[in-house]
Amino acid sequence: MIESILFVFENMPLLLKGALVAVELTVLSILLGMVVGLLVAILRLYGPKYVKKLMKIYEWVLRGLPILVILFIIYFGFPSLGVNIPAFISAVLGLGLRSSAYQAQIYRGAIQSIGVEQVEAGLSIGMNRAKTMLYVIVPQAIRLSLPGFTNEFTIVLKDSPLAYALGIAELLKQGRNIIVTSFRPFTIYLTCAIIYFLLFHFFYYLFRKIAEVYEVPGYIMSKKS
Amino acid sequence: MIRLKNISKKYNNTYAVKNLNFDICNGCITMIIGPSGCGKTTTLRMINRLVEPSNGEIFINNKNILDYNPVALRRNIGYVIQEIGLFPHYNVEENITVVPKLLKWGKDKIKKRVDELLDLVSLNPEYKQKYPHQLSGGEKQRVGLARALASDPEILLMDEPFGAIDPINRTKLHESFMEIQKKIKKTIVFVTHDINEAIKLGDNLVILKKGMLVQNGKLKTVLNNPKNNFVKSLLGEDRNLKGLVLKKSYDFANKKYLKIIKNKNEIDKTFLKKDKRNLIILKDKKRIKGYFKYQNKNNEEKIKYYSNIVKAGKYSNLREILSKMMEFGEDVAFICSKDIFLGVIRLADILKEMGSNL
Ligand SMILES: Nc1ncnc2c1ncn2[C@@H]1O[C@H](COP(=O)(O)OP(=O)(O)OP(=O)(O)O)[C@@H](O)[C@H]1O
Ligand SMILES: [Mg+2]
């Protein structure tokens, strides 16, 4: 038992390095997904007709494919078209674009549920369109999106081990490396599991705190129920 | 003054509003009324340019609204709607101060204005920190009104603002609304489909049907001269009764045929006998205790004392007084302003007033 603990501690630096890569991968993918997702959401809501269609197809396609297939197409498929993308960037692209399809849905739903009367209220008291967006729609949309966003973040975090398949040294891959030389899969995988679990709950807690800070009494609650 | 000139609005080739012409006078309440879908909301929203007319022009103080910058125009026009459109992520104070902040008022001025407005709409200062979801419908409505008034606009557009509020609270809001208007004297355009509300609050009436103007004018004129059967049915069979709402008790209270005594043994029987309208009122220093009346039933002469009297205030309207009389089974009401006795109103006076409407 003590021996096992010592063994885990010895290998902890490697595992933590892997965990850091997993977090980097997740955060970058989520950020990419946010930028693209917001754009897609706005275009799907306010864009010209054919752009709306296009965005709908974009969401459809990305949500309809297994993530591993997306990653393989980017990393192994694109080189045959003459496009070579490094493994880490491929992983961020794959996870990020897939996430953008889901985040687009979250933001679109949030903006839609705010409704035109809020825009009209803004205009009617003499705000211009930009100010109405900035002071009325965006702050509400962020609050309404937080629960969905938190969920999406943890999904991407839990999908990050798939980057293993592209040879990226994230947590699971580091664990595997250790197992190859030590033959102690149970101890190592269990340690990996604990680290993922802790990461998950750390971010979950963090976003919940953020939501609490920005909570408007009665508002999000009543929208949720 | 707001002037609508040949205003039409088409949606997909059907007219929501067709060829409207009417004026809205400054400082008065103009009620737009008509059945659902007749274009009331559309008409209102063309005034602050949330909807652009397909045809025609609207002038505010003789200037075409197209010549105003829309943002500046809307700052001079408060807009209150049923669903209010309060910003749920702002508390009451922030909601009210959105416009003053946009106008870059100083902190002190803004603070003073918030207190003024809350006082005006009779909300306790504690409400400043509350969020819209923590308010009742009536309270939201008051905040909506305060927000619309924040930058002291000349014009107020109200679209069924009290529609979703229960009758008891609506009556309260009506009363405070009338009091507020007495203080602020805004040009108010008020959409409703409740004729009783229109009669209670309005100075002028604009009646629409299927997007067209049917009749407009002073409330009293419309009540007395409904132009056609549509207006008659809108006003209701009891329009004469409704007309009583416009008549305030202080105009009708009189002291003819009255004698006031302080002590029961001062009764003057011959005075009572002389005219069946005559009353003798028993009144100590301030309070009216009851009255004496001559009765002649089956040739049996009697002076009867009534102590269960109907009292009403100076600003009560004749309709309220009539219904009180019915309730108590009395045919005379005593009008007092605080402790001052202004006179009585008899059932016969009210019936005569109703008759004069015909
Ligand atoms: N944006 C729109 N697009 C198409 N038709 C519209 C639009 N807005 C209003 N209409 C139509 O115009 C007509 C008048 O609508 P409006 O909202 O002005 O009625 P209203 O008198 O306010 O009715 P209510 O008492 O039910 O509120 C209706 O037939 C309505 O369907
Ligand atoms: Mg309407």
UniProtKB/TrEMBL annotation, chain A:
Coiled coil: none annotated. It is found in: Cell membrane. The chain crosses the membrane at residues 20-45, 57-77, 186-207. It comes from the Bacteria. Its main location: membrane. GO terms for cellular component: ATP-binding cassette (ABC) transporter complex. Keywords: Amino-acid transport, Cell membrane, Membrane, Transmembrane, Transmembrane helix, Transport. GO terms for molecular function: transmembrane transporter activity. Gene3D superfamilies: MetI-like. GO terms for biological process: amino acid transport. It is a multi-pass membrane protein. Residues 19-207 form the ABC transmembrane type-1 domain. The keyword Nucleotide-binding does not apply. Belongs to the binding-protein-dependent transport system permease family. This is Amino acid ABC transporter permease. It comes from Candidatus Mcinerneyibacterium aminivorans.
